[in-house]
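Pilot study result, target chain (257 residues):
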Amino acid sequence: MTPLTLPDPLRRVLPAARWEAVTEGCSGAGVWRSQKYVVKVQERGGPTVSTLLQERERLRWLWGRVPVPSVVGYEITPTHEYLAMTRLPGLPMSHPDAALHPERVTDLLARALRELHALPVRECPFNMSLPVTLRLARERVRAGAVDEADFDDERQGWSAAEVFNELVRTRPGTEDIVVTHGDACLPNVILNGEYVEGFVDVGRAGLADRHADLALAWRSLRHNLGPEHAERFLDLYGRAWVDERKLAYYRLLDELF
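Predicted structure:
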């Protein structure tokens, strides 16, 4: 990863620091952190899932409602976007040290998502429901922006077009709309001791079926901690809310993002 070079307006806002490149996560942006701040850098005009401007707006809306970083600055150049924010203390739930306490991780993730999903739907200005996300998925397929080699094991050998066609064929008839994170996997939830410090990578946050989060959290727990903890997560969140068919559908949808 190339060294971080900040635009002049951000250099004036951020103190001089040693910036460390962050390699975990798959947001599509370059990420650097200092002791107190994080800077994300993303090329403009590429096949990105969301822009850093969209993430900035979501961070501003979520601030004070659920724990997230605060925005320090946003700048745009002819080629790149830059988003600076405070660094949350703690470790991603995907960190090996967090895995030493799998029950704690599972319990806190279920609790954090219940709190996020309980936010008033009428106050959220961001729409990530199926009409929006399927349109974005179709655009990504047409642009050749989908990494077919990264599909889950059960879909290795599928084409992106085949995944999209299956999404259209099996689309649920209704959506259980809540305020969602949009990419609720373990690297995007910061753990600090006995509690969740906050959510990061919220560029896809918005109104969507709760299973958009539950499906990715379940898959991430299964991969990192094992199937028993993935099932425990659903128990703790509340089985009354869980539709197994929707869990499978939203895992399928995520293949195109």
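One observation from the pilot: The chain has two domains: 8-86, 91-254. A full batch analysis is planned for the follow-on phase.
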